[in-house]
């Protein structure tokens, strides 16, 4: 269905978009970035650097891809659109694809959250094939200075995509960007949602992921949120898939282990680049809206629908809302500030 000339547009030239697009361009794929002018001007003048898990670097020269802030130019003739905007911008991206995209193109959500593919499908079904995707790894952007912007993969994992577009995973599976097909993407996205409950804690802590997760006080808060989420999912008949090596049902218990035991049992969870932070931390630092409604908000709504409350998730939501309103970046909270009233 696809060949090396297949035109791929990256809708949203941010951390995930630039990392994925950079790896694809380096593998010789036909890539166009659709992004804001502030990044497009840098991409077209100096290109970008892809830094892999082991620190090795590759430079994608500006000649190896196209980049534009004009949606018509980026979407008109494209075959595959990789949607890599934050969840709050999905409806607008869908609108642009509907207006400028070519009938029959494949649209892939590479976003976190269980609802983005539905937002895309609502607007695009019938004319486009919408496919859910899941990026398990963290990408750290390095945009400072005059060097090419760099995008560093900070954790391991394989991108999963749905099976609706045969050959899609093979098209995307290039050096630095492992990708494969998954049969039950709903389960995968619910599994990733559990992991993403840490995004807000990380953003509120102001600490790198490795440091935060090594501290039991933060892990207990995460365990409480996950336990609420698992109960809500169970009541709704949702079976979250395993992301990484550990079964979702054991996560709350495991997270509560003392630090020395956790370090031994959950080595993979702590195998994070020391610089890595959650994408929600990036949002707070840059005074952008976060994805809290798509993460903790989804859990609270599902719990309430099934007749119980989710106080741990609520408390974290409230703290993120406050930080968004204050617009001063991470509040660098102490974990004690996040205990819900009932504890
Ligand atoms: N960062 C990470 O490590 C990971 C992120 N994810 C998920 O991937 C998704 C993308 O995250 P991430 O890459 O961090 O997000 P970023 O905010 O880094 O990138 C999104 C980019 O898209 C731009 N954008 C939004 N709308 C448009 C538009 N209409 N036209 C052109 N550009 C647009 C944004 O600009 P502006 O800000 O000006 O709107 C921003 O530059 C999220 O759902 C996230 O949860 C998943 C795994 C890991
Ligand atoms: C850190 C990671 C990989 C998991 O929470 C992530 O999905 C994000 O930063 O958005």
UniProtKB/TrEMBL annotation:
The keyword NADP applies. It comes from the Bacteria. PROSITE patterns: PROKAR_LIPOPROTEIN (PS51257). Pathway: Cofactor biosynthesis; (R)-pantothenate biosynthesis; (R)-pantoate from 3-methyl-2-oxobutanoate: step 2/2. Residues 184-323 form the Ketopantoate reductase C-terminal domain. InterPro entries: 6-PGluconate_DH-like_C_sf (IPR008927), 6PGD_dom2 (IPR013328), ApbA (IPR003710), Ketopantoate_reductase (IPR050838), KPA_reductase (IPR013752), KPR_N (IPR013332), NAD(P)-bd_dom_sf (IPR036291). One of its GO terms (cellular component) is cytoplasm. One of its GO terms (biological process) is pantothenate biosynthetic process. Catalyzes the NADPH-dependent reduction of ketopantoate into pantoic acid. This is 2-dehydropantoate 2-reductase. It comes from Nitratireductor mangrovi. The lineage of its organism: Bacteria, Pseudomonadati, Pseudomonadota, Alphaproteobacteria, Hyphomicrobiales.
